[in-house]
Amino acid sequence: MKKYALTICGISGSMGAFGIFVRWIQNMTAYEKASGLYISGNFWGRSLFVMCVLTVAGLWGITYFLGQIKGLTSPSSYKEALKKRFVAEKPIIIAIGVIMMLGAALLFAKSDELPFPSMSRIHALLTFLAVIGFWMMTAAADHPVGPKTLCVFSILPILFAAFWLLLSYREDTATSIVWRYAVEILTLSFSLLGYYFISGLAFGKRAPRGIIFFSAAGAYFSIINLADDLPKALLVIFFGNALVLLYFVWSVTSNLCPISSIQSEPELIIDTEEEEEEEPLPAQPAPIEADEDEIADVIEVSVSPETITDEDGDTWQEWDISSNDDSDKT
Fold first, then answer.
1. pLDDT tops 70 at residue 329
2. Residues with Cβ within 8 Å of residue 149, at least 6 apart in sequence
3. pLDDT at position 30, please?
4. 83 φ, ψ to 5°?
5. Residues contacting 218, CB < 8 A, separation 6+
6. 152: which of 98, 141, 275, 319 is 20 to 30 A away, CA to CA?
7. What is the reported pLDDT for 176?
8. Taking Cα atoms as reference points, which of 247, 243, 245, 230 lies closest to residue 107?
């Protein structure tokens, strides 16, 4: 699957590099020098638009080909889905994180020079946390990490992209020229969706097509943003963001496997209704069985009163008790 991973990463990287060139020329020629308004019908602006549409369509076509035609998907195991394929991956992961941390440190140091200093500091902090989440997610493929811990760290890149999107909208809400911030909004939108689908691996939700498509598109637009006139800290973070997304594209695509090779796990059915405990019935006395000889030995007792009168006229009664047992006669 490495050839597919190289193809997708190559398309994002090469088209992004070409997009930097087109975007750079557009920024120089598409705006009036006096008023700064956009020149309608600019060739480079239209060229950039067509190139973006074709690139995104091509990335979607490749992911559709892998999922629907080739029948490939991610393994059910998280470790298998992000399994490292060569030794140099660990140094690359560390280097990518260091690049983003340098951008975050520079952003924090220069936050007072930006329009929203407080929000920029929060942005820098979330960038640090996103790098930690990136490192933990990649480390979980080799080392045991608790499921809850992994889920928490997988959410950090989502918070990073979501807050950056909010900050970008806040900064550009008064800008009337859409082309000034259109590429940045597309970058953050695709990146946010890419991180969302990537975090799904930690939650047991496989969506390789979503990961590959949105991450590759997010990396492509991140590279184009390097041509914009932005603070250096943001350019460094954009570059690191593109590398993070391309790494996940490489890792997920390299570990794709046929759907038929994944054995479906049996569903665990849990009956939530408590069974009522049946109370034991009271013990019934066992019937007494007697032999015929025992029945014959039953003693029959008869009681009969006898009235006696003495010479003085006093009377009293005597009771005569008799039975069929000769040994007990009264």
1. no
2. 136
3. 86
4. -65, 135
5. 187, 190, 191, 193, 194, 241, 242, 245
6. 98
7. 75
8. 230
Q: Kindly report the three-state secondary structure assignment for every residue of the chain.
A: CHHHHHHHHHHHHHHHHHHHHHHHHHHHHCECCCCCCECCCCHHHHHHHHHHHHHHHHHHHHHHHHHHHCCEECCCCHHHHCCCCCCCHHHHHHHHHHHHHHHHHHHHHCHHHCCCHHHHHHHHHHHHHHHHHHHHHHHCCCCCCCHHHHHHHHHHHHHHHHHHHHHHHHHHCCCCCHHHCHHHHHHHHHHHHHHHHHHHHHCCCCCHHHHHHHHHHHHHHHHHHHHCCCCHHHHHHHHHHHHHHHHHHHHHHHCCEEHHHCCCCCCCCCCCCCCCCCCCCCCCCCCCCCCHHHHHCCCCEEEEEEEEECCCCCEEEEEEEEECCCCCCC
Q: Where are the domains of the chain?
A: 2-259, 298-330
The identity of residue 34, as a single letter, is: A
Question: Considering the chain, what is the average pLDDT of its residues?
Answer: 83
C-alpha 191/C-alpha 160 separation (Å) is 10
Residue 174 has pLDDT above 60, yes or no: yes
For residues 234 and 243, give the distance between their C-alpha atoms in angstroms, rounded to a whole number: 14
Distance of CA 278 to the CA centre of its chain: 42
Q: For residue 297, which amino acid is it? A: D
β-bridge mates for residue 316, sequence order: 308
C-beta contacts of 184-189 below 8 A and 24+ residues apart: 184/225, 184/228, 186/52, 186/221, 187/218, 187/221, 187/222, 187/224, 187/225, 187/238, 187/241, 188/161, 188/164, 189/165
CB 176 within 8 A of CB 35: no
Higher-confidence residue of 262 and 267: namely 262
211-215, 248-252, 291-295: which has the minimum mean pLDDT? 291-295
**Which among 239, 259, 246 has a CA at the least distance from the CA of 217?**
246
Nearest Cα neighbor of 251 from 86, 69, 98 is 86
Determine the Cα–Cα distance for residues 30 and 39; give it in Å rounded to an integer: 5
Token output for 109: 């140091």
